[in-house]
């Protein structure tokens, strides 16, 4: 048990209608009763007058006690629900700081205690962090899949199945002469291991969609100067993000805007016009544009409808949507996937629909890995399983299965992961 009782503001920064100050540790109830009098023991909210140690009233609010282990952290917890003014919060924090054995929580410390006390595993905690920071509906859904244990259950199931397979192998190695041990476990074990391997590879294939949902779908608007790239960015954003002029080469650096499109985070990037140039600043802008193109999830390749057809040789991706611009001045052309006018709005809705078709095909709501450390551990597990499947020495194959199960355990924290903890919990706000 941690010797310190920690506290922090767990709600948004004041001023606000309500502020929640959370305490966790073996002195949480004693400290709260010092300020608010005796607490209810039946986990009910009580209206209390909260006073400083000098007896001066600080505020009146609700006080809720959560006796451990039935609390978020697994320890005794108390929440003080008070008015969310800066003065009230500052006064309460000051009073708590003066109580022996109490200290202000570090970033993520409440969640870390929940992990250490077995209330949450690492995948659930990462999902909780994503849920707190979710800005779109799809980010919320993805975070819920993680934070409520569904993804952890999948990894735990694979690890347990690998462990059972390994146990059968070791039984054959250790007790080959016993009548109650099968003479060969190859059919039972390796069929099961092959199935796990297939499931794991299929799961890994969804990693890119998880990354896109969490970090956003990157769309680069590219093309020659004066193709209407900046005008399209402004039209999609419904505001003036980029400067638009008739002068070629106006856009020198990369501009971007984040949009919520039907619950998906979509990040649009406006880039410098692609052409040969002697201007050192424009050359750098073109270089950055090409780097952005290589990193994009989708490229909108723009060109004015009546301009000579361009060979988009730098667009190595298959996910390129060609867009003819200035439809208000020209007839539509079959040389493009679609044509638009930023002046009249013609074609913009079709463009949005085309983008959304790509997005909705990415994720069906299934469990997906969405963090680099999860993907790395899954790749390690798959490599170890491949070693086991392709090996010849039974004892070495069993060791490969152990290593695979251990790699899966690192994802949820069911093995020694002390080096990971500081990185993971440092991402949280102080009150969580």
Automatic annotation (TrEMBL):
Keywords: Cytoplasm, GTP-binding, Hydrolase, Magnesium, Metal-binding, Nucleotide-binding, Potassium, tRNA processing. Its EC number is 3.6.-.-. GTP binds at residues 226-231, 245-251, 270-273. Its main location: cytoplasm. InterPro entries: G_TrmE, GTP-bd, GTP-bd_TrmE_N, GTPase_MnmE, MnmE_dom2, MnmE_helical, P-loop_NTPase, Small_GTP-bd. Homodimer. Heterotetramer of two MnmE and two MnmG subunits. Its cofactor is K(+). Pfam families: MMR_HSR1 (PF01926), MnmE_helical (PF12631), TrmE_N (PF10396). The lineage of its organism: Bacteria, Pseudomonadati, Pseudomonadota, Alphaproteobacteria, Hyphomicrobiales. One of its GO terms (molecular function) is metal ion binding. It is found in: Cytoplasm. The gene is mnmE. One of its GO terms (cellular component) is cytoplasm. Exhibits a very high intrinsic GTPase hydrolysis rate. Involved in the addition of a carboxymethylaminomethyl (cmnm) group at the wobble position (U34) of certain tRNAs, forming tRNA-cmnm(5)s(2)U34. GO terms for biological process: tRNA methylation; tRNA wobble uridine modification. Residues 216-360 form the TrmE-type G domain. This is tRNA modification GTPase MnmE. Belongs to the TRAFAC class TrmE-Era-EngA-EngB-Septin-like GTPase superfamily. TrmE GTPase family. Mg(2+) binds at residues 230, 251. It comes from Rhizobium soli. Binds 1 potassium ion per subunit. Coiled coil: none annotated. The keyword Iron does not apply. The keyword tRNA processing applies. It comes from the Bacteria.
